[in-house]
Specification:
Elements (H helix, E strand, L loop, with lengths): L1 H10 L2 H16 L1 H11 L4 H12 L8 H23 L7 H16 L6
């Protein structure tokens, strides 16, 4: 919960949103630049990925590729928090706790082993 919450906070930070708005037109123009940027941006998923890797190692999650699992978990956060803010300035911050709980619950329903704390 904490790692995903921190991720949501990072991707919805005003400077992050502003930088993404500024560079998005360049990405459409230069696919190689976009590829290099998003390869580096994947590093921002590392805290979530680390939690997933540890939980898998501890038997709290089913055996799953941590990159795939991280992409699935963070995709929901991006869809609900990043894109509405980025595209139309609409924040869902007031619903963050509810959405965070539902997102993690769905993830654990699919990948959890029932052995978690």
């Amino acid at each position: 919960m904490a790692a995903l919450g921190d991720y949501i906070e990072a991707i919805t930070e005003k400077r992050y949103i502003g930088l993404n708005r500024m560079v998005m037109t360049e990405f459409m123009r230069d696919i190689d630049l976009a590829h290099r940027f998003f390869t580096r941006a994947e590093m921002s998923n590392n805290p979530v990925r680390a939690v997933i890797q540890e939980a898998t190692k501890d038997g709290q999650l089913k055996e799953i590729d941590p990159n795939y699992a991280t992409d699935l978990l963070t995709a929901g956060a991006k869809a609900i928090f990043f894109w509405p803010e980025f595209l139309i300035g609409e924040s869902h911050e007031a619903h963050a706790t509810h959405v965070l709980n539902d997102t993690v619950d769905m993830f654990l329903f699919k990948f959890g082993t029932g052995k978690g704390a």
